[in-house]
Amino acid sequence: MQNFKWIKRIKAVGWDLDGTLYPHDSVPHDLLYDRQIKAVVEKLKLSFNEVEVEYAKVYDRLGSNTKTLNHFGIDGLKFFTSFWDEIDLGKYIRSDHKIVQLIKQLSVNFTQFIISNSNRKDQIEKKLELIGFVENSFDLVVSTVELRSVKPDPKPFLVALEKLQLKPEEVLFVGDRVTTDIMGAKGVGMKTCLVGKKSKEADVSVKSVYDVGKLLV
User: Fold this and answer.
1) Domains: count for the chain
2) How far apart are CA 65 and CA 71, in angstroms?
3) I want to staple 132 with a disulfide (CB 3.0 to 4.6 A). Which of 95, 109, 190, 204 is the partner?
4) Do 109 and 55 sit in the same domain of this protein?
5) CA-closest candidate to residue 180, choices 213, 150, 210
């Protein structure tokens, strides 16, 4: 894997949760998407197809489903936290010894933290438990629900930097979405790693979350 000079300055690794620490296709995203569109349909009294078109336009501009729902007059944070409360997480999220071991190994030399959109702290903890993480596996967990400010807004990232007393250039943030994870972290000066796809917006892209460890050895 390519060697980046800035890697030597990294002291902490920040992680997105949904779609990064567990696979994006683990949860019923078709169901979630359907509920999002139907919520807007009910609000605007338009057809499903009409809303899909308008929803896509707004999402492309705002880069966040939470913000998109807010745009249409729906409380996005409330919508998503309610969704995670309603479904049986244990049915969808599986244990992953490999990712647990990766975080444990990286914790020897790097501070580890999480910034998660649209999840309450208890929902984040439940998901981490299902993956196989024990309590205090991460030095900090930031819930954007509690902050009322979602990625890509700078506030969640700045809160993490302040609490951990880190400089932006000392942090590598890992996520699976360009619009929220990469652009948000990049916006405050953090280095960024995109998982599962390539983008010129990220400092580095990796095929799998397990490849992050190779960057930092």
Assistant:
1) 2
2) 10
3) 95
4) no
5) 150
What is the spatial distance between Cα 97 and Cα 100, in angstroms, rounded to a whole number? 5
Identify the bridge partners of residue 111 per DSSP, sorted by sequence position.
12
Tens of pLDDT, residue by residue over 133-145, are 999 999 999 999 9
Residues 69 and 101 reside in one and the same domain: no
Same domain, 82 and 132: no
Q: How confident is the model at residue 1 (pLDDT cuts 50, 70, 90)?
A: low
Residues 175, 112 share a domain: yes
3-class SS at 91?
A: helix
Does one domain contain both 156 and 211?
Answer: yes
Element (H, E) at 140: strand 140-143
Q: Domain of 143: which CATH number? A: 3.40.50.1000
Q: Which residues contact 89 (CB under 8 A, 6 or more apart)?
A: 123, 126, 127, 130
Q: Are strands 171-175 and 12-15 parallel, antiparallel or unpaired?
A: parallel
Q: Which domain holds residue 199?
A: 5-24+93-215
Map tokens 């900090």 to a residue.
140
Predicted confidence at residue 183, as pLDDT, reads 97
The verdict on 77 and 104 lying in the same domain is no
> For the segment 44-87, what is each residue's pLDDT rounded down to a tens digit?
999 999 999 999 999 999 999 999 999 999 999 999 999 999 98
Q: How far apart are CA 63 and CA 162, in angstroms?
A: 25
